[in-house]
Amino acid sequence: DTIDLAEDRDRFRVIMRELGIPQPASGMASSLVEARQIASDIGYPLMVRPSYVLGGRGMEVIMDDEMLARYVEAAVALSPERPILIDKFLDNAVEAEADAIADGTDAFVPAVMEHIELAGIHSGDSACVIPPVSIAPKHIETISEYTRKIAVALKVVGLMNIQYAIFENTVYVLEANPRASRTVPLVSKVCNVAMAKLATEVMLGRRLADLDLKPRIIPHWGVKEAVFPFNMFHEVDPVLGPEMRSTGEVLGISDSYGRAFFKAQEATQTALPFEGTVLLTIADRDKSAALEPVRLFREMGFRIMTTQGTHDFFKDNGIETVPVRKLGFGRPNLVDAIKSGEVQLLVNTPSGKRSAEDNSQVRKAAIQYKVPYITTTAAAIAAAKGIAARREGAPQVKSLQAYHEDIR
Questions:
Q1: How many CA atoms lie within 13 A of 406 on its CB side?
Q2: Which are the contacts of 28, defined by CB distance < 8 A and separation ≥ 6?
Q3: pTM of the predicted protein model
Q4: Which residues make Cβ contacts (< 8 Å) with residue 307, sequence separation at least 6?
Q5: Given this model, what pLDDT does residue 270 score?
Q6: How far is 3 from 394, CA to CA, in rounded Å?
């Protein structure tokens, strides 16, 4: 019944309303007419998914009526028994999640994990960091409090995972999973909390009050990064979205956020470069956010190569870059630059339907020629900080036990 409550949108919405916890506006549609009515009521962009599949399969971000019609047409056997779920997509929100141990009347949250990618990327594919680096303390407290309230309301005994989005200074709950999550081992290692063992004790009858669990300050950083199979499939576009595509994950721990991120990238066998050229092709909506990582790369002596629109924007902001042609505007173009070995790092953010094909070719070329690539500005900032930290010197070996001794 608890699993059904968490997965049944209508039942879950009633509980959240009773608890006073905000959720993105949503609806369920069994036809294109119903879907368009919901879209009109809550506004684009939307996150849509079939109600009859689990996880992120079939999820898509919908930007307009045309995309919605195409999605509904592709949603086979659409009927009142098999509707699609439609949520307001919180564009450019910061996503976070919390794992908790609950005993039916109380819950303990060892840490909140911040996603390095923005909302819209499946949690299994997103790089994440513990403790959060950009979430305000008041929002971390809110997430912990909401997690406790939801765990108690759902009468969870054992482990649970809840996904959140922080949008315009408000914490929204996206979904609750009354089960263990793939992040449990990561939280356990970073925070020195044996979550599986403790949850088992609770399931066998012990109370959280008996276990003497208290929030502790984590003085180091743990970065989870997803491992993808794209190097085996050169024709697959590596851009990330709401449908999970990773086949594994790694964890980097260090006394600095930048070093932890660098170690995580190294563990995925796509180590970040120490020098050379960074090629940026940035969507209009991401250009302002790209200023920070570009300045960091410039300070480290990297050569910055950009397509014309990005070049003009950076020039207007006092940053000189080397322009390169987009596909279809003569040779050599940006794919030629990747093939010739001129580019050591690609930062390419998706930019809508019109240039989707061009962006896809650029990312595929990066995979084929083993150029590390990044598809969000948040990850570009993390990469720049990681390279800067790593250039200060090689990491010293430090055992997990030594990290745990510093937790207070």
A1: 12
A2: 9, 10, 51, 83, 84, 85, 86
A3: 0.87
A4: 280, 281, 323, 324, 325, 326, 334
A5: 84
A6: 47
